[in-house]
Amino acid sequence: GQRCTAVKVVLVMESVADALVEKINAKVAKLTVGPPEEDCDITPVVSESSANFIEGLVMDAKQKEAKFWQEYKREGNLIWPLLLDHVRPDMRIAWEEPFGPVLPVIRISSVEEGIHHCNASNFGLQ
């Protein structure tokens, strides 16, 4: 999450979305969270302002009714991994880089819809 080449968003065809999200969720459940000295998978984000930014994206998604597969949890700069499903283009998380352990899933109904979303992104294809 804290590098520019990290996955920003997952676009998935509606027909296979449930199966994919369940598989991702199973992997997320196995991630360890804590300080880097303990060799954890998820460690604190770089700054409090970064954590606040991520929290803003998450709260916007919650207000707009994305499905949370985990409860949002934060202690200081440490944010637990979060899988967000049913993310829509009107949610900030669909367009803004979190640089943290948040994975938004956007369900699409056609390849054309996916192409449209990619073309509308400021990030291009990564």
Written overview of the protein:
It is a single chain. With 126 residues, the chain is an alpha/beta fold. It has a single domain (10-120), classed as Aldehyde Dehydrogenase, Chain A, domain 2, CATH 3.40.309. It contains 3 helices and 6 strands. Strands 1-6-5-2 form a 4-stranded mixed β-sheet, with helices on both faces. Strands 3-4 form a two-stranded antiparallel ribbon. A hairpin with a 2-residue loop joins β3 and β4. The radius of gyration is 14 Å and the shape is globular.
Can you lay out the helices and strands and say which pair or pack?
Elements: E1 10-13, H1 14-29, H2 48-63, E2 67-68, E3 74-75, E4 78-79, E5 82-85, E6 102-108, H3 111-120
Parallel strand pairs: 1-6, 5-6
Antiparallel strand pairs: 2-5, 3-4
Pfam families: Aldedh
Protein name: NADP-dependent glyceraldehyde-3-phosphate dehydrogenase
GO molecular function: glyceraldehyde-3-phosphate dehydrogenase (NADP+) (non-phosphorylating) activity; lactaldehyde dehydrogenase (NAD+) activity
Spatial ordering of strands, largest sheet = 1-6-5-2
- The string of secondary-structure elements, in order, is EHHEEEEEH
Number of domains: 1
Strands, count: 6
Strand composition percent = 15-25%
By CATH, the superfamily comes out as: Aldehyde Dehydrogenase, Chain A, domain 2
Count of DSSP H/I helices: 3
Distance between the termini: 13 Å
Largest sheet: 4 strands, mixed
Q: Note poorly predicted spans.
A: none
Helix- and strand-based class?
A: alpha/beta
| CATH topology heading | Aldehyde Dehydrogenase, Chain A, domain 2
* Mean pLDDT over the residues: 92
In the CATH classification, which architecture applies? 3-Layer(aba) Sandwich
Radius of gyration: 14 Å
Roughly how much helix do the residues carry, as a percent range? 25-40%
CATH class: Alpha Beta
Q: What is the molecular shape? A: globular
